[in-house]
Amino acid sequence: QVRMVESGGGLVQAGGSLRLSCAASGRAFSRYSIGWFRQAPGKERDFVAAISWSGDNPYYADSVKGRFTISRGNAKNTVYLQMNNLKPEDTAVYYCAVDLGEWSYWGQGTQVTVSS
What are the pLDDT digits (tens) for 49-102? Predict the structure, then answer.
């Protein structure tokens, strides 16, 4: 059974930092890109960042460039999202997914709340 498990969310003040983790299991995802997305209340789910299987060429939404860093663990099935200088508008549920031609196997998400 394929599972994507996000963790690391929480409540932080504006300007603070959090590190999210995404652990994939049940299948060898080491050859696929993994991405982070977020969904704020009443809004659609938006792309945040993604990284290739090799860890090269990460790419980001304009809204998080320079503040967020995506990286891949040595086991390749774990992806991290380091979030610095957080803003209230970053408040959302954060999800990870695997790029199998389309984004697939969504996790349950982890809540990030940034207070002003």
Answer: 999 888 888 999 999 999 999 998 877 788 999 999 999 999 999 999 998 889
Percent of the chain as helix, strand, coil, to the nearest 5:
5, 50, 45
What would the two tokens of residue 80 be?
């991290």
Distance between CA 32 and CA 71 in Å, rounded?
14
Given a contact cutoff of 8 angstroms between Cβ atoms, the answer to whether 10 and 94 are in contact is no
Contacts of 116 by beta carbon, 8 Å cutoff, 6+ apart = 14, 88
List the Cα angle 57/58/63 in 5-degree steps: 135
Residues with Cβ within 8 Å of 54's Cβ and at least 6 positions away in sequence, in order, are none
